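User: Hey, quick favor. My workstation is busy. Could you predict this chain's structure for me?
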Amino acid sequence: MTTTRPPALTPAPAATVPCACTPADCRERCAVEVIDGLLRAAGAVRGAEMDALLDLRWLLRRREDPEGVLALFCQLRRSMEERHYLAFYRLRRWLENHCYATVRLCAGGPERVSPVRLDRFCVEAIRGHCLQTALAPGELAGASRVRFHFATLQ
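Assistant: No problem, here it is.
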C-alpha cells in the first residue's frame, strides 16, 4: 500500500495574508513592520507624522516605555487612522496583544491585571477603562494607580 503525501503548502504572497493577530500568533516585530510600511509609502505620511512614527518605532524596539508608546500611538491614530485604517488596525491589535495594565486600588494593596483595549483615543480614557475593568461590581476606585506594561517576550 502506497500513501501519497499532500502537496507542500506554499505561503500566499504577503499582500494576501490576513492579519492573524491573536496573542498566540502575534509576531514580536509586526508593529515595527507596519510602521516601516507607512514610512516607505510615498506621500502617505506628513512631516510631523513621520517624526512621530520614527519615535514610536524607536520606543517599540526598546520596549521600555509602554505609556509613552500608548500616548504616541493615540496621537498618531487621531491624525492618521482615517487615511491608513488597516495599518492602525494592525498596530492596535499588536499593542493589545503585547501590553497590559496593572491596577492598584490603594497604596500597598495588591495589583490586579487588566487587559489594554484601544477602543478609546487617549491614554487617560484607556487608563480609566483599565481601572473600570479591574474593579469588582460595587467596588470604589479610591486612590488607584494604573500602570502600563509590555508583556514579556517568549
